[in-house]
Amino acid sequence: MTAHPRGLTTVLGSLASFTKITGSSDDDWIDRLNHLWTVVLMTLFAVVTSSGQYAGNPIECWVPAEFTGAYTSYAKSYCWISNTYYIPQEEPIPRRVSDRYNQELTYYQWVPIILMFQALMFKIPNIVWRMMNGQSGVNMEKIIILAESGMMGDPDDRMKNISHLAKYLNRWIQTHRNYRYNFFVKLKEKYSNVVCFCCGKRDGTFLTGFYIFVKFLYCANVIGQFFLLNAFMATDFNMFGFEVIENFIYDRNWRESPRFPRVTLCDFKIRQLANVQTFTVQCVLPINLFNEKIFIFLWFWFFIVATLSFGNLFHWIYYIIFGENKVTYVRKFLKVSGEIHTNFDKKLSRKFAEHYLRSDGIFLLRMVGKNTSAMFITDLMQLLWKTFKEEHCSVKNGVTEVETETPLMNGNCHMGDMEPPSLKSKL
After folding, report:
1. Counted domains in the chain
2. H or E, element range at 19
3. Transmembrane stretches, by residue range (predicted)?
């Protein structure tokens, strides 16, 4: 019987170790879809295409009968590195060199490199986020790891972790606070949710502002990938997927795409003493069979990632800009923990959300909640609520008075049903 808890602990420990390779915990799954799974996918495709180029025969050419083995190898190598051009079989080969040059395929040798470059572009927003996250004064990843470890321990250790986490968050909140409260601070605080990029740590919008900025980077990157491939392949790649869907809907036979032709032509010259002979040979690019399927998949993958990224961006903007969402989020957990008893408690929770936690505090709690559970975040919110009331209110003769002149608790904090006039006017 004693083996079961130990075995369960081993399984949970192994699972926790495995999840370390799935990326950091200081973002959401849409971010990880961009900077982790898409990067893995692009790297895998780069390996597949490069192995096809270097481990197999990426090109085969139909050469004249008088060509020996060395001539044939030279023709294949030359056509691979100097580009081929595509002319449909039913059309005549243009006589002018400029017309042939306009039909050149310049991308197939560089597919592995461009895929790795695209993978790097998907990773850059996460690198920016990790760099700026470290400037916020709080290590989000370590906080979330501490919260996750607290979920798997016994109840005493769990509450101890939650208590440590609540004290740490309270110190962080108190450190990054405006203690001077004048007209300009009021104005800045009023519009901090809408123009969060103009604010900073002491306004409680540093993390949220940069997180929204990183969300913009993810969206701009995935849209830029279509334009990058347009320039890379010299075609309107952004329409490629729609053409595939159209062929599928109308049950058309799968035809060779002019973007990824299998049969191409190649011109090269051979100098023989004083004579220069020009040869035109027909070549086959087996690698384009894989390239076409890879880029079809990537088109739909990019489309899905772009749709989810934009939806996620608007989702976070909605939650950050509209202050009522913060109050609703806080009250939901305080009601579960039984901390909202009176109308005054309900109004006091607005002060707790808007002036104590503020946008960055709510954002951090949301991230912790996404990686733990509702029960954990309820206990953490309850401790922060109690700390908030203890630090900013002093009980005298049954009435709690304010100890600070900041708007955090601008009025009396009555523990009964009486509602202070200052809060009535404010709320």
Report:
1. 2
2. helix 3-19
3. 107-124, 210-233, 294-322
